[in-house]
Write a structure and sequence with these properties.
This protein is of the alpha/beta class. It contains six helices and five strands, in the order E-H-E-H-E-H-E-H-E-H-H. The longest helix has 20 residues.
């Protein structure tokens, strides 16, 4: 089985208790990077939880070639902006609730991420971070979609 390598944006209470353990314990999932604006706190989180890399900058994590998908656990006011940056980098993301601060921002996020999914499944997309256009990027997208649809049943 291949493994989805996750990066977390935001290392607060939610990631300590809920998200981090799930990403580390789920079959086919590995937490490989964590980001917090205060890099020292990100490094502390990474050290305590065995996460290989810590960042103080969201774009550095988003463009890390060893991160396949991004979990957004920042304050809601930044969800839309970060999701759009993740989509532009050619990666899927999962976010905490609320999705965004307005219906319009939610629609913008959905459109950007769906367009990326469509491009990937058509084989036209490439990951800006890694330049990958083939198997790994498409496999990650398929796994994320499969998880999404399984959660709906």
């Amino acid at each position: 089985m291949n493994t989805i390598r996750w990066g977390i944006l935001g290392c607060g209470d939610v990631t300590e208790i809920k998200s981090r353990p799930a990403l580390q314990k789920a079959e086919g999932s590995a937490l490989v990077a964590a980001m917090r604006r205060d890099r020292a706190k990100a490094e502390d989180f990474a050290r305590r939880h065995g996460v290989p890399r810590a960042y103080g900058d969201a774009d550095a994590l988003i463009h890390d070639a060893d991160v396949d998908a991004v979990y957004i656990a920042t304050p809601p006011s930044s969800h839309a902006e970060l999701a759009l940056r993740v989509a532009a980098a050619g990666k899927p993301c999962l976010g905490e609730k609320p999705m965004a601060t307005s219906h319009a921002k939610c629609q913008q996020m959905v459109e950007a991420l769906v367009q990326h999914i469509v491009d990937e499944l058509r084989g036209q997309g490439t990951c800006e971070s890694t330049g990958e256009s083939g198997a790994r990027s498409s496999w990650v997208m398929e796994q994320c979609l499969a998880g999404y649809y399984e959660s709906k049943t």
